[in-house]
Amino acid sequence: MALSKVDAIAIGGFDGMHMGHQRLFEALGENGAIVVIETGYANLTPGSEREHYTHYPIVYYSLDDIRHLEGKEFIDLLKKRFPLLKKIVVGYDFHFGKNRRYSHSDLGEFFDGEVSVIDQVSIDGDSVHSHKIRAKIQIGDIAGANRFLGHNYRIKGSVVKGQGIGKRDLVATINLECKGYLLPYEGVYAALTRIKGEEHLHPSVVFVGHRVTTDGSYAIESHILGEEIGACSAASVCFVKFIRKNQKFESLDALKEAIQNDIALAKTELNRLSL
Predict the structure, then answer these.
(1) How far apart are CA 208 and CA 254, in angstroms?
(2) Pair 171, 97 in one domain
């Protein structure tokens, strides 16, 4: 859709594109668009990753480029960008303008169209916020994070060379370098892996953390369940379920036994998705 046809916008940081954000988008209507204010702190859905979770076009503004604008100047900027603008949708905690001195209650002073303020969204009595999702990811509560997100937490990156013992002594893995994302608590996860260029999601077991049993280096390793994967340049991982913490084993045989157990648990968890 051409931006010239946009008549409603939702404004915010929208890191995570979570359930609370989606409530704002529901108020946009057919000719809506999303205005993302980039603060430099987005690490759940950095940059254009947000576009995976909406059908609306997204326009990005860097906070550094607009932080000097007073309230009226900011709204005038948006009205110029969207000449047919009739509606602005924001969250209850929205602030804007220089030093964030204006709130949603001030929008009507600068904008003569409709202002829709969306109340706090809660799940199981807990309010949904990006900082809470980050906290859940950092303690390994991936199920809780996914519940707030409304989708599986996803990271993507380029394929890098591993330590060389996986396929030979343990199991074959795709080793990833994922820049710009918040990485989960160190441990093993049931996950879904997508190889760049493919639509198919591969059931997998993913390890995130320091290889404390072998070389001690930090790694993100995905083992695809029941499939041989050829050479690839990039992949993404969707985390489904936390299986266990990272731990040190006394031997490669003990590690291999633990990996086989991880695989069995991951298969059980992922099979539930298809029931």
Answers:
(1) 18
(2) no
